[in-house]
Structure formats: C-alpha cells, structure tokens
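This entry is retained here.
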Amino acid sequence: QVQLVESGGGLVQAGGSLRLSCAASGSTVTNYAMGWFRQAPGKEREFVASITRGAATTFYVDSVKGRFTISRDNAKNMVYLQMNSLKPEDTAVYYCAAHTSYCATYACNSRVQNYAYWGQGTQVTVSS
C-alpha cells in the first residue's frame, strides 16, 4: 500500500509558477498510475492531470492544458506537477493520488472514484 505526501504549495502572484512534488513510500510508484486533483473551497474535487505508469500517456483538464505539466521519476518514487502562468482560479488544495487500474483513457484516469490512495494535500494560492 502506497503512502503519498505532497509538497511545494504556497502563495504566488498571477502569472507565476510553482512545482508540486509528491513523494511515494511503502510501495514502488511504478505499480500505480498517478494523478493530481484540486479542491477549492465550496467546490467538488476536480481532476487536474494524470500520468500512466511508464509515463507514456498524460491527460489534462482543459483549463490547465499548455500551462501545467505532470511528470514522474520512478527511480526516485516521485511525481511532479509543474504549474506555469498561474491564475487566481487555480487557487485550491492540490492532492496527489494513485490508482492501480490498467486504463488509458481520459474518462478512467480523471475519475476521482478510481483513485484508492491520496495524499493530505498542499495549498496553492494565486493572488491577482
């Protein structure tokens, strides 16, 4: 069973950048497809990005395409989310998550219910 810990959140001005990190322990991250989700106050948790085990396929929600990049370093058991051109609407708690399904569709990898393992979240605040 994998444990996930996020880091790298903070306060940044609009147009700035942050890099979120997700450290996995307890199991090798190669066993999992990984995703990033976010939840703003009063809103449901939403999918941001995902990456398959071998990093061959990535998916992004439309609102972050061209600005965010998900990556993984299986040797270090790490997953990253590089966030550029940040906007105030990106403000949320960001969660790292993992699932064991072998699926390669956006529908499957973006579904909150498919992810069995979650980190505690890291706050990202973008000021205007």
In short: The mean pLDDT is 96. The chain has one helix and eleven strands. The first strand starts at residue 3 and ends at 7.
